[in-house]
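dumping this here so i dont lose it
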């Protein structure tokens, strides 16, 4: 699986570790400032080493992980899980975020049975739909 490499670009590693479906998405996340390596904002060309700490946000989920192995090719999910170790604080924070989302009412639940045209426009605005 390419675990014999000494250094790997962070965008390539995030893709190989299955945090993002495509390498382009990983590159955009890094360039957009959602990835920090050892507390410093990273560029897509940043090379990782074993032992580096990565703070990233995937969607709305924050992760804090430590790199345990390097890979430059995408493999199975079971192999990808061996590339990193998530911190206990990160696991607790993600679990709390999941429970908050499950407890929250869905968008538009306070509007009643069937939304009016005005209500529908409000719902679409909240969901981020643009015309």
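and the seq i came up w/
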């Amino acid at each position: 699986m390419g675990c014999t490499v000494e250094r790997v670009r962070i965008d390539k590693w995030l893709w190989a570790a299955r945090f993002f479906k495509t390498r382009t998405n990983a590159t955009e996340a890094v360039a957009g400032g959602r990835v920090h390596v050892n507390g410093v904002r990273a560029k897509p060309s940043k090379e990782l080493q074993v032992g580096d700490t990565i703070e990233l946000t995937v969607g709305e989920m924050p992760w804090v992980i430590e790199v345990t192995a390097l890979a430059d090719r995408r493999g199975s999910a079971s192999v990808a899980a061996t590339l990193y170790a998530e911190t206990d604080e990160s696991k607790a924070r993600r679990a709390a975020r999941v429970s908050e989302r499950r407890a929250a009412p869905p968008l538009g639940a306070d509007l009643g049975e069937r939304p009016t045209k005005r209500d529908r426009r409000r719902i679409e605005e909240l969901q981020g739909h643009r015309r």
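The radius of gyration is 19 Å.
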